[in-house]
Amino acid sequence: MHKFKNRLKYYLIGFGLGLVFMFFIFGNRACAWLPENRVKNMLAEKEIFVGDSVQYLMQCQNVTNDDVYRLLNEEGDVDFERSITDVHPKIYLFQGYKDKKDITITYALGDSTTEVIGFEFGGNTCTTVLSNEHKNVVSVPEFKIISIIEEQKIRILDRAQCQMDAHGLTNAEVLNFHLHATNVVEMSEPRLEPNPFYWMHGMIQNVDFEIKYIIGDSRTRIAEIIGPVETDCE
Fold it and tell me: Of 178, 167, 187, whose CA–CA distance to 222 is shortest?
């Protein structure tokens, strides 16, 4: 019995040190099983919408799409006391900071979508007569797309390599393209299963290019490069 207690003690010490080590290396991402992170993941993995009246008030108060996603990442904290989880859809309030001021954004978690249904920031002095019946997609901000693309190793597929060579582009120029590019919303499919993709638009050597990134389970694949040169790459 004494040996068992010693083994258990050493196991728990080792397990605790492992958790601390993982937290320092991976931050909050290492604790996806925590209640707050589970809520964040459930909300963020669905397409996010906002009604026209809430969107108007957000624009009036300078609350942006970036703020909507930023609070769902590491910068926001769930206010469990004010959240309402015994209704459908469940209502979650997230608190954070913007311009050194408190900001709270309220999300409704539906079966297949998430909706921004309210916020608190700077006194909310704006008003609107819009009905909030018309819903708009909250586009994924650039910082979030960059993190998605960089979450895994980036691989250039054969067709993209052929197009890259035809335009005289270097590996470094293509692999760093997303850092200075913008998302082409109408061409991207961020919720497509099993492989969502993003089209990014930017410039290389003062020339316009569009590059397609396919997000896989273990790789981000650069699948296509569109530029001024017509190619017959297959």
Answer: 178
